[in-house]
Every structure is written in structure tokens, then in C-alpha cells.
Amino acid sequence: MKKKILAGLIAPLLFLILACNPDPSITNPESELDEGNELDDDSAWIMLESIPYYLTMCSLDSNLYIGTENDRLKSNDGGITWISINGNLPVSTGWFEVWTDGTYIYTEVHQSPSSEVYKSTDGGATWQPFCNFDSYQVEPITDLKHFEVAGDKLFAFTDDKIFVSQNMGGQWQLAFHEELNIGSFVPCWAKIAVNGNTIFTSNYASPIVSTDGGLNFEADYEITYATTGNIGNIVFNGNDAFCGGSLINANDSDSTICMRTSDDGLSWQSSRSGIEETVLQNRALFISENGVLYMAISNKVYQSEDNGLNWIQVGSDVTDCSPCALTYSFFKCNNRLYYGKYYYDL
Predict the structure, then answer these.
(1) Enclosing H/E stretch for 193
(2) pTM listed for this prediction
(3) What pLDDT score does 220 carry?
(4) 101 within 8 A of 149, measured Cβ to Cβ
(5) Lateral strand order in the sheet of 218-219
(6) Which SS3 state, helix, strand or coil, does residue 137 take?
């Protein structure tokens, strides 16, 4: 008798619940956010099956560009298909980078006695010489690893040095030399972050900072590298700079850290609420756009809308976080995040 009474009560209750919530897909929001730390797990990162192993990726006018070993490629369909854009470039060997300043695309050509940079104004159809390093007579700059155009200055990176030109490549001067043989400048981590006269870059062992507009840089040893750990690129979000990865701080032994500085690197504070611990030897890659921060490390990507105070995961875990799948590139094009060989539509 009690069971029949309970059944009679449950049936109308179920009807009321369905009437108030006719869409069964609308569930408890706490379960969707996994206690505030993770977005919808059904939102998977999609792998671009046809993309080759590459150094970095950039976008201009909704086209994607990558540099591979001995080739430069372009995609106008979001990375589904790729065409070579070597065009009229001189023949050279090595890993190439293709980058943009927001107006044109650039690439390097490795030739003796020094490297040379070429520019394209038509999306890679044709290339014109942009600058070389012959005016720097101290030593040939043959091992160019990264290059950037920042306002009226050019920055060229080798393994352990930064060179700057204030007259579009007419003359070059040495701005930094890492003499301790720790770290190395690699395109995805060396990308500069500019805020007024303060410029940050990274050699994956420590932040490198300039407070005079890029004429002189010095290593920021407030954050020191761990024996088996590294940091990635640095970005500004407003006046605060962010970096992170697998490292140790002078006063902290955490292996996975997101750090923030508000005083040009004089001091750094932990800013990793919501970021899970991961294994060592992972460098964090950052994006800052319109006040929103994105951080990619290992097989996870996070987002912060409160200047790094709190982070939530974007989508589910990346399926394959091996170096071949997560080639060291992370950027945003339109409303899509690209992380190595994966993309995610926001």
C-alpha cells in the first residue's frame, strides 16, 4: 500500500519537473562546470589531420601560415588543406618560420655569410628582400631563430643573442647575450610582449626584460629555471605580464606555475587558481586578447576573464599531447583557438 501511495505521488512530481524544464539537456549547472574548474567536456579539441610538423603558426586576413622543415605553407580553409608559398624565395635549408606584424608576412632565408629576411605583401605569392644583417660586422648572424617587427624597431634572435635595429635593418646592435648557456631562443617562446618601453621575451629558462624600449635586455632571475623545467612565452594583459610552465620560484617549489608581475618583473606572484598540477618539462603558452587570457600547458587549455585571478578549462583535454601533436604554437584566429595540431571553436 505504501509503495502504491509513493508511486502516485512521484508521477505528478515528475510531470511538474518536466513541465518546468521541458528540455532534458538542461541539467545542473554545477555538473556542467565540474565545480567551477572545467567547461563542457563534450566540447572536444579537433585535430587537423593534414597539417605537417611545424615550428609556429600565424594568421593574416583569415589565412593560416606555417613554416616547416624546408617549406612554407598557407591554408585558406582553416588548416584543412595547405599550399606551398616558397615562390621566388632563394633556395635555402633548415626550419623556417613564417610570422606577421598584422599587415605583412615575413620569413627568413638561411644563406652564407648571414641570414636574410623577406617580406610578402600579397599573402606569400611573391617575396621581396626586407633586411639582412651585413651591417653588423662583429660576427655573421647565420643562425637566425626568430624575428619581429615592433613599431620602428626590428628584433632578431639567435640561440643566445638578441639584436635590435632602430632604422629598419640599416644598422644592428647587440641588445642581449646569454653567457651562462642556460636556455635558448625558440620562435614560440621568444615572441615579444610590449607595453610602452617595457618589452618581455623568454629563452625558456627565464624571462628576459627590457625597460628602455628594447635597446638593452637582461635576464629576470626573480623567476629561476628548474633543472628539469621551463617557461614559455610572456604576454601583457593590461599592465600585468604573465608567464608560466614547469619551474620553481625563489620562494616556492610548485612544479606548475602561472606567474604575474605588475612591476616589470621586479617581483612575481602566483596566479594559478583553477590550474591543475601537471608533469614537469611543460612550457605554458599564453594569448591575451581584449582583456581575456588563454593559457595552454600540456594537454589542457585554460581561460581567465579576471586578469589571471581564476582560470577555467576550455573544452576537454587534448587527446594527444606528444611534441609531434602539440608543436609549440598557440594562437587565436577569429573565434577559434589553435594549439599545435588542434583547434577549438569558442
Answers:
(1) strand 193-195
(2) 0.81
(3) 79
(4) yes
(5) 193-195, 198-202, 207-210, 218-219
(6) coil
